[in-house]
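Below is a concrete protein record.
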Amino acid sequence: KSTKRKIHNTKLKDGIKKLTKTAKKEIVASDSKSKDTVKATIKAIDKAVKKGIMKKVLVVEDDQFLANAYKLKLSNSDFDVKVASDGKEALSIMEEFLPDVVLLDLIMPNMDGFETLQVMKASDKLKSVPVIVASNLGQKEDFDKATALGASDFIIKSNVSIEDIITKVNKLIS
């Protein structure tokens, strides 16, 4: 399955390169109004192709600073990233945005990570989405509970760099 996806993504990338090259030739030969239209089209095509190729990550984290740091680093690593500040918001986002992996905090307002994980794993649509629990709760009971609820991995935020998290996300997706 992943080999087919890689081939598909390579074909998409090659197609966009050819299209962009052709469009750039058109820009040179066009008037300024047409140039603007072609440039806008190139941007729109680029964005659409990236959305189709990019893996999706949902970060569920109530600490705004940390959520923004995760989003920035993951986006810079070519992930399509959405952020939710609690479990209810995460479930709402996942109605339209089906992530390839979820990075889930445990202690949050409105709906905590354990309840969010439980709802996800009970859902036909969401049960196969891998979840990395990222928490500062390091007790064995928390690890055991998250694992029993279906978490794919459990990390203690204070012990792991964002780069390590990106590595874990990549491993789960590939």
